[in-house]
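User: Can you predict the 3D structure of Pseudouridine synthase? Sequence below.
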Amino acid sequence: MNRPARRDGTPDRNRTSAPKQGAKRAQKQAGRQGGVPRLSNAKPARTQNVPVPDPEDYAPSDPTAALAAPGEQIRLQKVLAQAGVASRRVAEDMIADGRVEVDGEIVIEQGRRVDPNVAVVRVDGVRVLVNENLVHLVLNKPRGWQSTMSDDMGRPCVGDIVAERVAAGQRLFHVGRLDADTEGLLLVTNDGELAHRLMHPSYEVPKTYLAWVHGEVPRSLGSKLRSGVELEDGPVRADKFSVLEASEGRSMVRIVLHEGRKHIVRRLLAEVGHPVERLVRTHVGSVALGDQRPGSLRVLGRDEVGSLYKAVGL
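Assistant: Sure. Here are the predicted structure tokens for Pseudouridine synthase:
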């Protein structure tokens, strides 16, 4: 951990950083209240997928210019460059090669102008995020936190983690839910159409979980789960299932489902005799949690957003 520095730039081992002091106070308060420590604001993930703009894509007189004002038409190669696809010169080559389409039409002329706030732009069939007002984040939801934007009972919730962004004017919401005892990947966005489709069962977007369960799970269980198990609200079928570890009365398994019914993973594994001790969601579609820390937020990369759009037909 980096320590605060003196004025001469050397670490001061006798001082404690403000975030560390705040964390300790939160832990003490939680201990007194018997609750979960709150995060005063979101910690950024160590790795962020924020494209670094190419200086040639901005006029020297206005290096901080926004992508476009509402309704403004700008050149397609500039849209691609500022969306982080490629430099403007490379984007021109991509257009000439017929790799770019706008609203379902392949564009090969260089002078084409589009409104990036409404146009649907794809490169090699993958949608490119060109509306700078859309926000797509991955949150590693900690265990014990509620998948809500606020909580009447004062329990820690997702809204606490994104409070600073909401206060700054971003109208964010979480995509689906994880129960309080389940941790891991939760998408947070203001992209309503994408969120709706990701949650709708007809699009069958797979979700991957790691589960630590009671009992040594036989590898033959996979065929049973893939064939389908009858629950009180209807049958459920695992897309994929594998046993990663099994020893001393405990197993770790990976399970992939595209259903989103309440407590579906826990109910399914309990039904086959292996109640869940710990559950972590690691993927939604091809978007992975990776080594992101609990309580941290990460901006989705262009390819990740494109993969989600593709999964739901946008």
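Residues 136-202+287-312 form a domain with the Alpha-Beta Plaits fold (CATH 3.30.70.580). The chain has three domains: 74-127, 136-202+287-312, 206-284.
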